């Protein structure tokens, strides 16, 4: 019994350490994504960008965090107090939880032992992610409604209808990946994409659909109708200030980071790269490869934001319902036909 308890304790400690490290990395990437976005925007607009806080402005995210924590926190008189407070915390909690099933590598060899670089390998990892993605809309809707501001409510309604609409096409695109891999586990999907056998080769249309839906789910331009400043002031978080506003903004960058990790895992081999062993360097090569892919897609997300104009709302909904969903269904049918003809 004592040996069993020690084993359980060791497993729990290992997972807790992995969770803390992953949480820290996620927050760090989200923080410096704000710096990266400002620099990329400045480059595209022939400006310098942040350059005052630290060398090359590298301390700007820390300065922004201090500003958020020290700003005056206020609440509208007619707001629903507890829901108003709950909304930003719920939004960032859901954003952080989606990273639990992503395989960041194979195993890390440390002090003679090995650590699985995945918090939990459940056999329904894709359903887990889609479930938490669908919960994210509640934080936005609650925050917009509890603020008792019509512009916040308009932004929340826009965000809710947008996220619900694009989740359908995203889910249909994922079905094609599941059909090819025969598994809902992200670990299994990543392990099947060794060498040049990435799913992007077999699912180019599915990738385009999923990537477009990921932009919409993260409220990124050209799908940022929920925060349309010219119409809605600031969108669903208009009445928020201090770190409550920071949680909303931070969660959006966390969602972008996790979306890029999921895209890399589902379509671009995850921690695999042709000619490189993910177990090399004590297991560090896998995370290095995966994070290189993630940072590339984060750059693409930012590139798109500062290149394409915002859709009108009717164009946004037309694209989701009348274009992406039919294309996702067509892609699913073509995938099924390909599997019948050529095998899995």
Judged by helices, strands and strand pairing, the structural class is mainly alpha
Tally of structural domains: 1
Weakly predicted, low-confidence segments: none
What do the pLDDT scores average to?
Answer: 88
N-to-C terminal Cα separation, in Å? 45 Å
Total beta-strand segments: 2
Sheet with most strands: 2 strands, antiparallel
Number of helices: 12
Order of secondary-structure elements: HHHEEHHHHHHHHH
How much beta, percentage-wise? under 5%
Strand order of the largest sheet: 1-2
Shape: globular
Rg, please? 21 Å
Helix amount, in percent?
Answer: 55-70%
If you had to describe this structure to a student in words, what would you say it looks like?
Helix content is 67%, strand content 2%. Helix 1 (2-44) crosses helix 2 (60-70) and helix 1 (2-44) runs parallel beside helix 11 (285-305). With 344 residues, the protein is an all-alpha fold. The model has no long low-confidence stretch (mean pLDDT 88). A hairpin with a 2-residue loop joins strand 1 (107-110) and strand 2 (113-116). The longest helix is centred in the N-terminal third of the chain and has 43 residues, at 2-44. The chain has one domain (77-342). The radius of gyration is 21 Å and the shape is globular.
